[in-house]
Write a structure and sequence with these properties.
The chain has 177 residues and is α+β, with helices and mostly antiparallel strands. It is built from 1 helix and 9 strands. Strand 4 and strand 5 form a beta hairpin. The radius of gyration is 32 Å and the shape is rod-shaped.
């Protein structure tokens, strides 16, 4: 009598091997595409966050000077803020690089664009309301608008800044009669 075979010596067929390779390839493609999607999302988020930090930095810089200046000299690629002590702060952006005293203020790859300062509540859209060169600012509210861009997108910032400077005049006390 022959004993029944407990183990098969047959091995793996070609069809079984091809099916297992196809399933492995599908799983590998899913894992790789998911990883690439997450990497692209993280990179896009990082760029947006970095651009937002640059916008916040420029907004703080401009609003601090705008809040205390007595006059502004505005040119196509620069602005000079003058305060009551005749101190000045000059910012330039030749080719989009925001600079102060030849020191670049924005990170490489970012561009400063489209600075406009308009008194409030005058219409923002009218080009006649944009402050031109050597205008004296009055205490009050101003819209400060600009954009910062990188190679993929641009963020626009619109600030409402209150100018607090006031003129003080010395008035002698009244003479006793």
């Amino acid at each position: 009598m022959s004993s029944p075979r407990l183990h098969s010596n047959r091995g793996v067929t070609l069809v079984e091997l091809l099916v297992s390779l196809a399933i492995t390839a599908i799983l590998l493609v899913m894992v790789v595409s998911g990883t690439l999607f997450v990497q692209r999302y993280v990179e896009r988020w990082r760029r947006q966050n970095s651009r937002a930090e640059e916008v916040a930095f420029a907004a703080q810089l401009l609003s601090e000077h705008m809040a205390s200046c007595t006059s502004i000299a505005r040119y196509p690629d620069s602005i000079v803020f003058f305060d009551s002590a005749k101190e000045r702060a000059c910012y330039r952006w030749p080719d989009g690089q925001l600079q102060s005293d030849r020191q670049i203020l924005l990170q490489p790859g970012y561009s400063f664009e489209h600075l406009a300062i308009t008194p409030f509540p005058l219409p923002q859209e009218s080009p006649d309301t944009i402050l031109r060169a050597a205008q004296v600012t009055r205490p009050g509210l101003y819209f400060v608008r600009f954009a910062i861009s990188d190679r993929s997108a641009a963020d626009t910032c619109a600030l409402l800044v209150r100018n607090f400077h006031e003129y003080y005049q010395y008035a002698p006390p009244p003479a006793d009669q």
